[in-house]
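@channel sequence for tomorrow's demo:
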Amino acid sequence: QVQLVESGGGLVQVGGSLRLSCAASGGTFTTYIMGWFRQAPGKEREFVAAISWRGYSTYYADSVKGRFTISRDNAKNMVYLQMNSLKLEDTAVYYCAAAKGGNWNVARLLSEYDYWGQGTQVTVSS
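structure tokens (generated this afternoon):
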């Protein structure tokens, strides 16, 4: 069974930067579409970013486009989310997810993902 473990969350001020990491084990990481989602208290889990299994394509939610960058290192079974120019509304628990045989055209959808990490808290303060 695939396991995903996020790290790198924490407390940061508005305008600051943070890099989240996701370590994958137990599966063929190279062939998975990888995504990041986030969930704030009382809100639905929402799509943040996705990267194709070879890393040639990326896709971002409009709310983070131009500020966040997703990347992956298949040799290390790692995926990253670089977050710059952080805003108060970025505060949430961030989840790493993996889609085995996922459809790139709908990579923004929760239903495409088969495995999820436990999440890491990101808090942006003024």
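heads up for whoever presents: The first strand starts at residue 3 and ends at 7.
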